[in-house]
Amino acid sequence: SSAMNIVTHKKFCFENVMVDGVDLTGSSSIALGENAQITDASGWAAVACEDLLFANFNAEAACVGGILYLSDASDGKIDNYSWKVGDEGIGEASQAFYYIQDESPFSVTLTVGNLDGQESEWSQTITPITSEIGDNDIVQNSTQLASRLPGESYQWFKNGALLDGETGRTYGYDPEESAFYFVVIFEGGCNKRSEILDLTTSVINLGEEQGPVDVYPIPFEEVLNLSLKENVDNNISLKIYNGLGMLILSENLRLRNGSHSINTHEWNAGVYFGVMEIEDKVYSIKLIKR
């Protein structure tokens, strides 16, 4: 059979088309309609347009020292998302964020799926550019955090998550809460992330309330353990960030027999931040690997 190669990454839709002996190759996806006839050919989809999954995304502000904003632009019925940089998972929502450490190009992949078992995947190579924005940090008093450098606009993050609506130069925070923060400043087409302000503790708590999970040992070496100490719903969303604020682990856990172990053999020594969501409450903890 022959082949038709379409380089453009785009979704095309037709109805009641007949294809005989021609394979579809390239980056496009084509729905031929539910009554299409496909003979001795591959790559085509004999489905209605709305039933064809098509993964796509936008990447904004790819600047060294900044946060890459990734937003879903896929088409079709989508129930789940998976973002990766290289082989490293960075998120499972319709948007994701990634700290760009240097000028090295890297690959971003979005996989979308639905409850019918369909999946679609798309990858882009991101080539960062240098930024003229200076290094920034956070100034702190008893009630507010502030960006030391001025910018055209701002975005605050807490425990690695974007804070909706917190786009001013200052942010009012709870000094009793264990958490880590950074602020992103925007200038032109670039942004720059501040140094991380680390207000986490080595004990899981939310204000003065003790959390329902023990994490041990701290410091740890090869293995990090989680153990339930209360009778709670053991569905736990766990995210762990390294000292640069980069997400290195994201899991939804059901603790077997109330416990779970994480192999940390390949992690570098240093400080990490753990963020757990349990029964609509968020707990953060400082982790140290020797």
Instruction: Say what oligomer this is.
Output: single chain
**What would you call the structural class?**
mainly beta
Which residues form runs of ≥5 with pLDDT under 50? Answer: 205-209
Proportion of residues in extended strands: over 45%
Quick one: how many beta strands? Answer: 30
Described by strand count, sense and barrel closure, the largest sheet is:
5 strands, antiparallel
Distance between the termini: 59 Å
Helix count, per DSSP?
0
Instruction: Give the helices and strands as they follow along the chain.
Output: EEEEEEEEEEEEEEEEEEEEEEEEEEEEEE
- Mean pLDDT across the residues is 89
Using only C-alpha atoms, the radius of gyration works out to 23 Å
Shape: globular
- Give the % helix: under 10%
General description of the model:
By secondary structure, this protein is mainly β. It has no helices and 30 strands. The strands form ten sheets. Strands 16, 17, 19, 20 and 21 form a five-stranded antiparallel β-sheet that branches. The protein has a four-stranded antiparallel β-sheet with strand order 10-9-12-13, with no helix packed on it. Strands 27-26-29-30 form a four-stranded antiparallel β-sheet, with no helix packed on it. The protein is globular, with a radius of gyration of 23 Å. The model is unreliable at 205-209 (pLDDT under 50).
